[in-house]
Amino acid sequence: MHYFVYLDEFGHIGPFISPDHPQHRTSPIFGLGGVAIPVEEVRNFSMFFYKLKCSLLAFELERDQEHPAKWEKKGSDLFRVQNINKYRELRQGTFRLINEVKAVGGFAFFYGQEKLAPKEGFTPEGLYFATLRDSIKQLDRYCAKNDSTFSLFLDAVDSYDPGAKRKFRLSGIETASKSMFGNSHCFRLLEPPYQLESHLYQNMQCADWFCGLFGRRYAYRYSPTQYAQNECVERYFGARLDTILKANTMKRNRNARIIQLP
After folding, report:
1. 84 and 91 in contact (C-beta within 8 Å)?
2. In this structure, are strands 2-11 and 258-260 parallel, antiparallel, or unpaired?
3. Which residues, 6 or more positions from 241, have their beta carbon under 8 angstroms from its beta carbon?
4. DSSP designation for 154
5. What is the pLDDT of residue 257?
6. Structure confidence at residue 103 (pLDDT)
């Protein structure tokens, strides 16, 4: 089997100290996550997501007067705590999305890590490239065990230095190429990643929706007390997400033990 794997970011890529810190408080974790779809199901799945988006967010589409094919709703905005708790339609739509991933033989995936306190030499780019490299290794091992291959599609991330956008994108491809042809020998990845503009690709938008869930879920798992408001993600979606999650890893930090999750 060959999978198309769509990955986006979750959490926050900048430094983190605590939820109460005046500057570094956004998220204790950073990762890449999304969805893997068998290649023969890619077109049908993208149509399913498109129709779900149009139905679920009809009011916003009408308000914005934008063609749905190039309109997107970011997962971090969609899965706000107040939306999850208030809108039954959002919860049911998410259940349908999870069920469809399972029905087409796909799976959800993430690789993330707890961020350390800021230190000299830290760069967002360095964290992103390390996470991308390890995500490719995880996916490659999973595909090797299941006699399958994959192609990787990434959200076209701009550089966190606005003046170095092209360099950053090329560096991401270089990181993947090193995983393919270097010591890692990730033979199941057929080509270096393709970078997509998410507003034009339904399945990339779907990956972003899953990342909206992952970011809140794993901040809550990191510290149930500090992120108690995110408990609703675990309560409504946790068990269902576990039925489609494969090959995932969340590191407590880069120098500590690795916690394998379902």
Report:
1. yes
2. unpaired
3. 98, 108, 213, 217
4. E
5. 35
6. 98
Residue carrying structure tokens 């606005």? 162
User: Which residue type, as a one-letter code, is found at position 69?
Assistant: A
Q: How many CB atoms lie within 10 A of CB 191?
A: 12
Q: What size, in residues, is the chain?
A: 262
Q: How far apart are CA 139 and CA 145, in angstroms?
A: 10
* 65 torsion bin: left (phi>0), alpha (psi -120 to 50), beta (else): left
**Identity of the residue numbered 16:** F
Candidates 8, 100, 127, 90; CA nearest to 46 is 100
For the entire predicted model, the pTM comes to 0.88
What is the model's pLDDT at position 120? 56
Tokens of 24: 């570094």
The structure tokens 């489609």 sit at 244
Q: How many CB atoms lie within 10 A of CB 87?
A: 13
Q: Closest by alpha carbon to 171, among 139, 111, 128?
A: 128
* Neighbouring-strand partners of residue 108: 35, 245
Instruction: Tell me how far apart the alpha carbons of residues 20 and 171 are, in angstroms, rounded to a whole number.
Output: 34
